[in-house]
Amino acid sequence: MSNAIIQTVDLHKQFQDTPVLTGLDLQINAGQVVGLLGTNGSGKTTLIKCLLGLIRATSGMSSVFGQNSWDLDASAKSRLGYVSQDCVLLPWMTVKALTEYTGAFYARWDQKYVNTLLKEWKLNETQRVGALSTGQRQKLSVILALGHHPELLILDEPVASLDPVARRQFLQSLIEFTEQEENTILFSTHITSDLERVTSHVAFLDNGKLGFFGELDSLIHHVKRIRITAEHDLPQNLNLPGTLRSEIDGKHALIAVKEFDAVLLESLSNELQATTTVEDLNLEEIFLELSGVSSRTEAEAIQ
Fold this sequence. Notes:
By secondary structure, this protein is of the alpha/beta class. The protein has helices at 44-51, 74-78, 95-103, 111-120, 134-146, 164-181, 192-198, 216-222, 262-272, 283-291; strands spanning 4-15, 18-29, 33-37, 59-64, 67-68, 80-83, 152-156, 184-188, 201-206, 209-215, 224-230, 243-249, 252-257, 274-280. The chain has a six-stranded mixed beta sheet with strand order 6-7-8-3-9-10, sandwiched between helices. The chain has a four-stranded antiparallel beta sheet with strand order 2-1-4-5, covered by helices on one side. The longest helix is centred in the middle third of the chain and has 18 residues, at 164-181.
């Protein structure tokens, strides 16, 4: 029996004449914490809305908990937690009243846990929601999504308006949430350092398709930047498998690859009579290489 919590097969979504998702195949299993990456316009928010049944896919299949996303029943929805980019909340309610109102929709609502988060995140229970800052509303949205201990938590840029201290509090709460309950999380953000702290897997969207999906450790192990210095001018094509970027200037080369092979690199070094240096990359650098927008800066100069 499959333990897939989220699954899409050949998923397409088009807005008028503009294709956004163009045949997306994705499977996220129970217990995985998945960071969703992609450039602006790559389809991250569209994917999330299709998964939640907020918009209807043009074609293909999308399911959550084994149910068609467009037809999720009340039981499935009660197992979901969702934080959108917009943070649309009822402005006339107090913070405490809104948590209690939200809790009325969930059989498993944990008001004690919610009150603890309100205190830890320094939100005044008696303040009206409409008077909260953007960052405070974002904090409250996250708390409302966690209050019923969802089996699946979907976060779409949940910390964009939070200061560094609040972001750290949020991430710590997220780590504790996953450690205690081993639930599934899909986390979309442009702050790659946050993903490195909490995710087990990374999904990279590229032009509406899945460009990469796998364990974060595996991605970091396989995507490398290689600097080559030879005694003679190098050929213009070194034919390294999985080359993402290749900059060759005479005796010097800077190569980014997604299928690093130490044995193959040693063989190439001997063949070219060259010295090589392999650089580990953080997730932000990997994202830039995979997306093809990594630019040549002074720090990355070939020589």
